[in-house]
Amino acid sequence: MLAILLKTWVASVVLFSSTNALPSSYTGLPSLLDATAEELALGLENNHFSSVDLVNAYTKRILEVNDTLHVVTEINPDAWKIASELDEERAAGNSRGPLHGLPVLLKNNIATDDLMNNTDGSYALLGAKVPRDATVVAKLRKAGAIILGKANLSQWTNFRSSNSSNGWSSHGGQVYGAYYPGQDPWGSSSGSSVASSLGLAVATLGTETDGSIILPSHQNNVVGIKPTVGLTSRAQVIPVSEHLDTIGPIARTVKDAAYILQAMAGTDQYDNYTSAIPNNGTLPDYVAACTLDALKGKRIGVPRNYIGARTETTAPILDAFESALQILTDAGATIVDNTNYTAYDQFITSGAEIAIVGTDFKANLASYLSSLTVNPNNLTTLADIRAFTQSFPLDEYPDRDTATWDLVLSLNLTTSSPGYWAAHEEAQFLGGPGGILGALESYNLDAVVTPSYISAGISAIIGAPVISVPLGAYPEDTTVRTNPRGDLNLTAPNVPFGISFSAGLWSEVDLIGFAYAFEQRTKVREMVKPVVKPSTELWDVGRK
Ligand SMILES: *[C@@H]1O[C@H](CO)[C@@H](O)[C@H](O)[C@H]1NC(C)=O
Ligand SMILES: *[C@@H]1O[C@H](CO)[C@@H](O)[C@H](O)[C@H]1NC(C)=O
Ligand SMILES: *[C@@H]1O[C@H](CO)[C@@H](O)[C@H](O)[C@H]1NC(C)=O
Ligand SMILES: *[C@@H]1O[C@H](CO)[C@@H](O)[C@H](O)[C@H]1NC(C)=O
Ligand SMILES: *[C@@H]1O[C@H](CO)[C@@H](O)[C@H](O)[C@H]1NC(C)=O
Ligand SMILES: *[C@@H]1O[C@H](CO)[C@@H](O)[C@H](O)[C@H]1NC(C)=O
Ligand SMILES: *[C@@H]1O[C@H](CO)[C@@H](O)[C@H](O)[C@H]1NC(C)=O
Ligand SMILES: *[C@@H]1O[C@H](CO)[C@@H](O)[C@H](O)[C@H]1NC(C)=O
Ligand SMILES: *[C@@H]1O[C@H](CO)[C@@H](O)[C@H](O)[C@H]1NC(C)=O
Ligand SMILES: CC(=O)N[C@H]1CO[C@H](CO)[C@@H](O)[C@@H]1O
């Protein structure tokens, strides 16, 4: 359906100029399924509605889909009080900036020092307390964002079991995508992606070790930015690996994601990886990077050997991808084909990533647990968490096994193990000279472009950024296929897919521009419609 639509429709597309002027059709009350941060900020500034109205509307929307999609695990009991304070600040003429009074949701591994729990989807951590907000949360609050609640996720960010399902956690239930009955939401930022897609907040935060922002964004018709490791602090976020983990925005538009990234990124005394941010920590202007001509004169590579084979399930995506290459060309870019990754064959069989992540997880998890000011079950090590999980009925062990933890514990690696630095060096080579960095340099590229289903891995092992933007959706005649566990519909008609731009470390400002220039020429998100969606709008909750 869309793969074909995209081809024919691009010729007639009308481009909107990016100004802050209200469109002539603006009634003051944008529909929340697609409302942008700028539209909501304008409505607040013009007193068409308040932040309390926004909190009322978004929480009603969350509860409307609670029983069907299990997207949000907790609503912040303080959200109304915070909204009301921010409304007063605004009325007194003090705006904190573009996010003032806008509600956001957090993935349930990003901690807050308030009444909400941070569980990674496990009862093991229910009731635990942290010494302070995660730094990304503190930065968002300072920018005026309202923390509305916690989004469900794949339990332990999908770093537990070989037989679980994307978006399932014992504490939050099974998240479903909204575009087909029983849709696999992908993960592990499942609830964050579905929530952004359905307009349950202005945007959400996700986390990624390898694919956890990009893949669910791709599968749920939203934009995901996976920042360079170190651009966003991981302090007080339940970790997998300090070498790969990063926190990023998931939003309905590239510009909304840019606004959130601008506010959450930056140096932090509690995460020394942030000291690597260039220019002594001064951030580029990610929002200003959103220009229609951002692709003009740029060289964009296509690493065909990384993209892989055409199969029945990849065919619709690859067709849409070929059309997208034409759109990039029309936008002024030069497409350089076959910018292959020279060490790709070694990459796909390499054990370097699990060696690094497995080493980090044991140490980084223990470090997070030791930071807790209240630890109700006294769990201090991975072995403790595993014992809890295996004996706690709602964790569905042994059906949902603990294979990942079993492996990590049996490897028994530390940073002083003989293979550790070798694995680190190997990863740097496979993603670097043998991977994306090598292709960027050899072909003098500004970025590479790939379907999003494949984009995460090569960038993950070197901590490099990726952005995914909606590209299309499966056509109506698609055969329904389930996930390996057999309890979710993974491929089905109307299930969305995305396209990704990737480049070297700290290249977010370029990638955001490329993604914006593509998004504005295609507006795919608006063409793919969810089959389940909440109906509450601002006009249903009253207005000032
Ligand atoms: C969400 O739905 C469940 C039932 O599936 C219900 O027990 C729970 O109270 C609901 N949550 C809220 C916040 O209403
Ligand atoms: C956090 O968990 C505790 C313990 O189950 C519960 O009493 C509390 O209501 C939860 N907080 C929120 C905001 O749901
Ligand atoms: C998957 O889709 C089929 C229809 O194709 C439907 O019968 C089934 O209930 C769906 N699965 C789930 C988990 O809802
Ligand atoms: C960063 O902090 C970690 C743990 O606090 C420490 O082990 C590491 O040496 C530090 N790295 C740098 C570059 O300061
Ligand atoms: C870098 O930033 C720090 C803190 O913001 C400041 O104290 C320092 O002077 C800056 N260094 C340079 C070289 O600008
Ligand atoms: C790049 O990879 C593709 C797909 O594997 C292959 O067909 C092509 O020949 C390769 N091109 C170069 C220049 O290596
Ligand atoms: C945790 O440890 C504390 C102090 O040793 C003890 O009082 C408490 O009963 C323990 N809680 C659990 C659930 O084991
Ligand atoms: C995986 O889960 C499925 C669905 O519950 C179950 O049928 C199967 O036995 C499980 N496999 C293993 C190896 O536990
Ligand atoms: C793990 O390795 C350490 C030494 O590095 C050793 O003391 C310990 O017994 C090992 N544990 C297991 C379960 O093999
Ligand atoms: C806030 C909320 O709706 N939480 C629900 C999430 O899903 C689980 C499992 O279905 C429910 O028990 C929670 O009440």
From TrEMBL:
Domain Amidase: start-end pairs: 53-451
Q: Which residues form the signal peptide?
A: 1-21
Q: Mark the transmembrane ranges.
A: none
Tell me which PANTHER family the record gives: AMIDASE, OS04G0183300 PROTEIN
Pfam families from the UniProt entry: Amidase (PF01425)
| UniProt keywords, alphabetically | Signal
Quote the protein name from its UniProt record.
Amidase domain-containing protein
Gene3D superfamilies associated with the record: Amidase signature (AS) domain (3.90.1300.10)
